[in-house]
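Reading group handout, session on sequence-to-structure problems. Before we discuss, look at one worked example. The prompt was deliberately terse, the way you'd type it at a terminal:

> structure Histidine phosphatase family protein

The input record follows.
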Amino acid sequence: MGTLYLVRHGQASFGADDYDQLSALGHDQCVKLGEYWRARGLRFDAVLTGTLRRHAQSFAGIAEGLADATPAPLLWPGLNEYDSEAVIRAIHPAPLERPGNPEMVRHHFRLLRQGLQAWMRGAAQPAGMPSYAEFSAGVAGALNHVLEHHHGGQVLIVSSGGPISTAVGQVLATPAETTIELNLRIRNSSVTEFAFTPKRHMLVTYNTLPHLDFAEGAAMVTYA
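And the output record:
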C-alpha cells in the first residue's frame, strides 16, 4: 500500500494584481512542512504538481525544508486551480473592487460560492475555463496515474484547494457541491493524506497542519 500526500500551495497574494505568487509567509509555511517531513525521515518516490507558479514555488519551499534529493516533479495541468475571477464574472459581470476589508472579502467568497454552484450544475460556463466535468477529469487523471505507476510508493502532489477538494469528493463519492465547502475551508500548505492500492484511494486525513503545531505556528495559519 502506498501513501499519497496532497498539499495545497502556501499563502499566495490574495487581493494583489497577481495572485499567482507566494507571499513570504507562504514560502515559510512550505519550508516548515519540508522540515517537518525531514525530521520524520519521509522521502518521496514521485512528485506531481500543477503548472501554476505558486505550485512550483510551494514545491521549491518543501524541497528546501527536506534538504535532500527530491524527484523532479511531473507537471500535470489537470492539477491547476479554476480561475476564481472567471467563476465570479460568470454570475456577476459587473466590476468588483479589490477586496480590501473583511466585509469585501466575505462578499468575494459569497459570490465565489454561488459561481461554483452554477459552474458545477452546468448553469454557467466561466470564460476560458473547462466545464466542471473536464476539470474533474483532470484531477481524476492525476489520481489514476498514481495508482497505475506508483504502487507502494510515497507520492507528493502539490496543487490548489479546488483540485484537492475535488479529489476528496471523488474518493468519498460525495455530491459535487460538497467539494465547495471542502474547498473554502482548506488552509494554505495543508496536508491531505490518501492511502492507495493499485485499485483505489482511501482518505486518511484532510486539511491538516502538523508542521504548524507549535506555539508560534498559530500565527502562520492562512486560508487564501
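Points for discussion. First: The beta strands are 2-8, 46-49, 74-75, 154-159, 191-196, 201-208. Second: Residues 140 and 170 are 8 Å apart (CA to CA).
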